Every structure is written in structure tokens, then in C-alpha cells.
Amino acid sequence: MTTPETNYFPFLAGDETMDKLAKRIRTTMEDYLESSKLQSLVLGISGGIDSALCAALLQPVCENAGIPLIGRSITIETNKEDEIARSIAVGEAFCHDFQHLDLTETFYANKKLLVDFDDSQLSKLRQGNMKARMRMMVLYDLAQLHRGMVVSTDNYTEFLTGFWTLHGDVGDFAPVQHLWKTEIYALSTFLLKEENDAQRAALQSCIDATPVDGLGISQCDCEQLGVPNYFEADKVFAAFFQGDTSLREHTLIKRYCASEFKRHNPGCISRERLVNL
């Protein structure tokens, strides 16, 4: 796996580079589909830029492979109307099989099985994690049913900050996980030129939207990350990995250090340690 220390320049630019990048992602996915004999790709669509970009990248891949891109917008109580509208627009524009599902009632039923919820940030995080894991249950069931694979939509900036739910956001194949958020926006903007009117409008709405996880933890992603926007987040990481030790106390870098365990999950005891008693 590429490490941040050896890949810390998050500012790809230029149409030629973006074109090569899109083709590389698509051909890699096509090769994987051919070798794995999968019969579908399953994508959770949030109304955010990451899943919208994945939908735009993967639609032609699935069509070339003769398999469906199955999309689901899965909302639960804290998702706002604008998020839901964007997710539906993306799903209808790019997916071959799309539905919007609301799991609010199921969430309330599941919530009763757990204990000690209040108005604290910890309770908000716990409920947010449960929502993410409920969504993934639906997606994996669809993948099993249609002999497919769940696509992971995380980007590199979120990966480094641990800004995702274990067993709730991670799929089986991650086409954009090693793209910084700045690159996600750049590639999405580039792809606008190849889309039809409905696809372009859906993708543009996600480019313009304020990033939010929809889990009711905060008003926007950057509020939790301690930066004004994702572009600033990537600049902080770039400077830190280039040796700026003054950033060690930055909220973003603290999150990076504290979430190391998530990037190496599950933790395990090595075979060597177990047998050399």
C-alpha cells in the first residue's frame, strides 16, 4: 500500500492528467471485474461528492462489462432534504438499478436494543456508527443477492483522518481511496464534460454541496476535522508529511495519529509470535 510519507502531493491538475487518471481507474476496475467474474457492483449513494464520482466512473465500466451498477440511497432520520435530493438525482442519472430507502423506523427499533443514549457527542458518534453499519448491511445483502461487490467510496483525506466507520463505510474495492479530496473535486469537475445533462446536473450539485456525513454528528465534515475546508486539510497533510513538525498539535494531525488502528484493522498477533514460544 502507498504510504502518506511517499505520496503526499495532493494537487493533480490539468485535463490531460485527469483524463489519464479516469482511464486508469476504469481500466483497473474492468480488469478486476473480468478476473473476479463478478455479476454486479453495488454502490451506496449519499448525495456527497465521493459516491457521485464513483457512480460517474463506474457506470461505463459496468456497461462495458455487461453488468448492472446497483445504487441505493439509504437515509436515516438525520439526512437532510438536500442530501436526499442529490443522492436520488445521482442514483437515477448513473445507476442501472436504483432505489431510495429510508431506514428511520428500523434505526429507532435498533436503538432500543442499546443503552445509555443522551445528548453527548459520544452518543451522537455511537448513533452515527450504527446508522453507517445499518446501511452497509443492506448493501452487502444486495451484493450477495446479485453476486456482486460493494464499492468503497472513501477518499485519502478521510482515510488518513479516520473519518469513516469501521464495518460501516468500507466496501470490497476502493477505486478512489488513494485520491485526496482535492483530487476528488478535480476529477469530478473534469468528468462533467463527458456527461449528459441529467448526469452533469447531478454531479455538479454534489461538487457544490457542503460536505456532510449525514449522521447527525455535526453540521459539516470540516467542523469535525478542525479545518475550514478540505483543500486546507490536504495542505496541512502535505506540509506535515514534508516535515513541518509544528503541525503535530493540529487537530487534523492528532486525528491522523489517533486513528492509526483503524487503518490496520483488524489488529492481530503474528504467526511468528504465536509459534515462537
Return the string of H and E elements.
HEHEHEHHEHHHHHHH
- The CATH architecture can be given as 3-Layer(aba) Sandwich
How helical, in percent, are the residues?
Answer: 40-55%
Q: What is the name of the CATH topology? A: Rossmann fold
Low-confidence parts? none
For this structure, what is the CATH class? Alpha Beta
Strand order of the largest sheet: 3-2-1-4
Return the domain count: 1
Radius of gyration, in Å, reads 19 Å
Largest sheet: 4 strands, parallel
Counted beta strands: 4
Mean of residue pLDDT values: 91
Q: Tell me the distance between the termini.
A: 31 Å
Task: State the helix count.
Answer: 12
Q: Name the CATH superfamily assignment.
A: HUPs
Shape: globular
Sequence-ordered SSE layout with sheet pairings:
Layout: H1 15-36, E1 41-44, H2 49-65, E2 69-75, H3 81-94, E3 97-102, H4 104-111, H5 121-145, E4 149-150, H6 156-161, H7 181-191, H8 197-208, H9 221-225, H10 230-241, H11 251-258, H12 271-275
Parallel strand pairs: 1-2, 1-4, 2-3
